[in-house]
Design brief:
Elements (H helix, E strand, L loop, with lengths): L1 H5 L8 E2 L8 E17 L11 E10 L2 E14 L4 E10 L2 E10 L5 E7 L7 E8 L4 E9 L1
Antiparallel strand pairs: 1-2, 2-3, 2-9, 3-4, 4-5, 5-6, 6-7, 7-8, 8-9
Length: about 140
């Protein structure tokens, strides 16, 4: 999908149809995210507490080629068990997709697609994330238009 998405065209893996409406299209996109930087920002009480933030930067890859970036800021909203409210942006040269989620740690949950730009300006759906090591995740985008 790297060349097709970077150019702003629909991905080769696009499929039509949806459980919600015959007029919607669902596309899938698979990327690998590799963390390049992270920082825990300790605010308020010393140690992990409400309001602390986790800031993460990742490179996005497809078929071994870097195709974009992902940045996310998560705020701790519950401690023990930990829950984080996260807002992030997946960025490729011709489009952006924003996502948000309330993550319950440890997480392999879905992230809601909140919006996008370029070829993905009027989208919904979700991104399923699965850990693939300490600093790598597999991402499957399920994008509806």
């Amino acid at each position: 999908m790297a060349a097709a998405v970077i150019a702003g065209a629909p991905p080769a893996s696009a499929s039509t149809g949806s459980a919600h409406s015959a007029h919607q299209q669902t596309e899938t996109l698979q990327l690998v995210a590799k963390q390049t930087q992270s920082q825990l920002i300790d605010v308020g009480k010393k140690g992990r507490s409400l309001g602390d933030e986790l800031v993460i930067a990742e490179d996005l890859y497809q078929n071994g080629k870097k195709v974009g970036d992902h940045s996310v800021v998560c705020t701790y909203v519950h401690i023990g068990p930990d829950e984080l409210q996260c807002l992030g942006t997946f960025s490729l040269p011709q489009w952006h997709i924003t996502g948000q989620a309330l993550l319950h740690l440890p997480s392999t949950s879905a992230v809601a697609i909140a919006g996008g730009s370029g070829a993905y300006s009027a989208v919904g759906g979700y991104v399923h994330t699965a850990p693939a090591g300490a600093t790598e995740r597999h991402l499957t985008f399920h994008v509806t238009r």
